[in-house]
Design a protein that fits this description.
The structure is a homodimer.
Chain A: E1 27-40, E2 43-50, E3 53-60, H1 65-72, E4 79-88, E5 101-112, H2 129-134, H3 136-139, H4 143-165, E6 169-170, E7 188-190, E8 198-200, H5 206-214, E9 219-227, E10 239-248, H6 252-271, E11 281-283, H7 284-291, E12 305-306, H8 308-311, H9 317-320, E13 324-330, H10 338-349, E14 359-363, E15 369-371, H11 379-389, E16 396-402, H12 404-421, E17 432-436, E18 441-444, E19 449-452, E20 479-484, E21 487-494, H13 499-508, H14 513-527, E22 534-540, H15 541-549, H16 579-584, E23 587-589
Parallel strand pairs in A: 3-5, 6-9, 11-17
Antiparallel strand pairs in A: 1-2, 1-4, 2-3, 4-5, 7-8, 9-10, 10-22, 12-13, 13-16, 14-15, 14-16, 17-20, 18-19, 20-21, 21-22
Amino acid sequence: MYFCQNFSVMYRTHNCGELRLDDAGEKVTLSGWIQRSRDLGGMTFVDLRDRYGITQLVFNMDQDAALCQEARNLGREDVVRVEGIVRERSNKNKNLVTGDIEIEVQKIELLSKSALPPFTIEEETDGGDELRMKYRYLDLRREPLKKNLILRHRMAQEIRKYLDKEGFLEIETPALIRSTPEGARDFVVPSRLHKAQFYALPQSPQIFKQLLMIGGYDKYFQLAKCFRDEDLRADRQPEFTQVDCEMSFVEKEDVMRVFEGLIKYLLETIQGIHYKDEFPRMTYGEAMEKYGTDKPDIRFGMEIHDLTGEARGRGFRVFDTAGFIGGICVPGGAGYSRKQLDQLTDFVRRPQIGAGGMVYVKFLGDGSVKSSVDKFFDASDLMMWGERAGTCKGDLLLILSGEKQGTLFALSELRLEMGNRLDMRKEGVFAPLWVVDFPLLEWNEEEKRYQAMHHPFTSPLPEDLPLLKDHPEKVRANAYDLVINGVEIGGGSVRIHDTELQGRMLSLLGFTPEQAASQFGFLLEALRFGAPPHGGIALGFDRLVALFGGGESIRDYIAFPKNNAGRDMMADAPNFISQKQLNELHLRFRE
Amino acid sequence: MYFCQNFSVMYRTHNCGELRLDDAGEKVTLSGWIQRSRDLGGMTFVDLRDRYGITQLVFNMDQDAALCQEARNLGREDVVRVEGIVRERSNKNKNLVTGDIEIEVQKIELLSKSALPPFTIEEETDGGDELRMKYRYLDLRREPLKKNLILRHRMAQEIRKYLDKEGFLEIETPALIRSTPEGARDFVVPSRLHKAQFYALPQSPQIFKQLLMIGGYDKYFQLAKCFRDEDLRADRQPEFTQVDCEMSFVEKEDVMRVFEGLIKYLLETIQGIHYKDEFPRMTYGEAMEKYGTDKPDIRFGMEIHDLTGEARGRGFRVFDTAGFIGGICVPGGAGYSRKQLDQLTDFVRRPQIGAGGMVYVKFLGDGSVKSSVDKFFDASDLMMWGERAGTCKGDLLLILSGEKQGTLFALSELRLEMGNRLDMRKEGVFAPLWVVDFPLLEWNEEEKRYQAMHHPFTSPLPEDLPLLKDHPEKVRANAYDLVINGVEIGGGSVRIHDTELQGRMLSLLGFTPEQAASQFGFLLEALRFGAPPHGGIALGFDRLVALFGGGESIRDYIAFPKNNAGRDMMADAPNFISQKQLNELHLRFRE
């Protein structure tokens, strides 16, 4: 046995983001990547970059021509180690924290030569999406992605710190579990040891966290990797991370209090925002009626107003055949040009939004009104709509009509679009909202049965229990969604902790007792052995980080994301496996 | 919109572990499980349990007969909520932190009735392994498992705290990756969208963490879930958790310093042990020679001594045909009985150990020697062996012989067994050790090729590079294993950061350039774009926690483990999936 020997190399004494004027005169060693290099007559300036920043290196032809020549031979993204003396810069760069100093280099060592990168590694890059996904490790060198991943790290640490302090235990639940057909589609894993059998990857740790509650672990959390094999839409990933939590001996209010506290803590520590008020709450019904969505962005008003009563039955066929007519008031929009209004009509007619057309009413400064349906309605009608929608002189009323649910959706999208155009969705403003009193069930027309709006373990509101038998569609769930700036950050519920009620729920959802037993038997069994009242929540971590980072796409907050077809473009996964692997799994493919 | 309403129930004002004498007179609400109940004439005493402890409830027949009767109807594991007044106990229980008080109950509410549990939920249980796995949620209620999971939580938090403070970023790498046939067997996940293609679940984030280094994230860590589809041995799980780390611009010493620091930090914060010395180091060669294993338990000596030179060629056939003869000295063992020696012979002959037999020499107090090979060797021979092995009067020399590697292994097992018998492997003592200078390659006789002892990305020791061409078997790896108390806690290495050397390595391992490109192409490509020198380590988190907890099996430190056949006994996974699921994946089974 022996003890530590000396180091043979020392790659760096400092990183590229920490030297300041106070360090002038010190001898230092830095390592990093060549960001860029400039030759100015007898001098060569090189920006050396690492995770922490950029430091300027300087080489002087007069002092050491050979060394200066070495520096001139360096290319972008080469990795070097340099030794030198910290000097005050004559030409300071106020945009860099290290901009007061530079390193007068005495020795340079090439650690790793770089080929020419396929796109520029700068704040703004010239690389397209596909190319940047293929060379993700190069894209990750860019400042914007680096900032995102550091934010993600910071938020993960703070979330754990808060929950640990609140007495939560971080407990890992299994990744190889049993497939359950309820909900989205599972990814499955063929078992080699148990022929024709599969594990599934978890869509969430839902059942396991309920078992932990039954096991007596009254406060659980986990940053859990979850999986869903869905047809991919923009900005959805087959694997994603959830801040998954559960508590025992709680009601809805207890869970909401703890996680409202978590969001406030994150706003404080990450954003420096002191949000002291309680988060407002809105029922699902109110949200749908006023905002046309169950995840309203309440950074701005512009609520939807129901004009069905006022506008239907006056001979305008479009309105007369509509199940619902609704409008939003655009403040100061009376001056919108024909062209601007046409653009908005095109916007609502896009297939993703699906409105048939748009009616407008301008409330002009002189008290007159002007509308695309002047022919069908007189001024007093239009004024009455305006009154209903709370318009003032100078405002614009935009009206959509049709089948109720679709029209509310289109109005919601139009409202967000107008919010963007009028800059009412301010960056750096965070408007959290709890949405509550969701329906417990929704009718699945295709399968002619009810399905759970959240999941089959969600408890009904206690006061609605009597309705469960005869009016299940009227029963509200003891559930809550957390929405921030129009983004659904997470949701949760109080769970059913009673075997009998859980059985009734599964039967309502169309499970025969045999199906229920075969799929959820171990949970139903567990409920028999003293299950405490419990409830929880799951927050979408990728989305939460993207929201805090001000980004549009969660992909920019994941180190190695998949593309929209679920492919890892860099590693080229999924891919074919060997015949030997297939044989071991007893598998073949259907033609 | 509205704001928070009042709570309708309050399940508890305190938990079952926090009330003390100072709280006497206070009105409290508790919730928990009935641990046990005793009727003593007019009084009923009930132990109420939750995650935090046990509090005694008391009911008095004279004061409230109906309430007392309710209490008597409660069964084990029923969940209740009680209101009452904290009183000083007349008969204090010093074994409970709440033992000075009891709750004089005024109101009791049954929250959840429990069926009779299939085994007793006590410190020691009567449930067999299978039964406890099936009802894992009940087993998790037992104090020993609860302590283990709380320890795991605590260690995870402290590990992150330490690494965060050291500037590491926690970055999640993907779980759905590309299958690579090198190493253990992958679990694979059939893709629905890409027919006949598969993702693999990661055996470790090795390649991704190297790509993060190339991406400039110079200190990375993750508590990563990893997967290996191996034939299961006792105490091996198909999914396990790794503390996975990587650093750039480092040498071996830098990595060892940081992670030696981590272990010291954990010993300090979790065990209250201040380990101030440097961790000792041992070469692989020395470890094999002196301890017969690359993970020696150095809590005690009893090293192996090579007696081949002294004992071979004297006409004792067993020794004369042996490639290696080695012995260990058992201090004070000269008094071992025939029966004890037979037991040890049986021990080394077990198929898992595989020795043919055992020779002993007793060094008696009167200076004489007594041996099972008295017939073949005279006293001076035996004395010479004793001298070689450092025996004293009263000691026992145990000798095994045979093919070298197998004999060293058997001696290592015998040494550990003697350490146990002599209580030299003290609980609560932690003896860390770095094992270094492993061979880079080992010869795979079956496939007639070299394979990497660690993995194909491990760098050779710089000073051994010249040997790579002509004597690859002599090249040592720039690698290090961390061993504590004979348990391999983790290992790591400095990686190859040079495309050319990585190519040579893969070719040495028998990869054609095409195979190398098809399997590791994206890593080889990435190395071309300025890879910094880097290295890292991975610690087995399950094992580390088990070591700190003093447990034998990692299963006791995992909330929901699989059994030895890779099954989740509770959820009964893996299991069959529906024909619809199979069809969507284009899969069928071979007969």
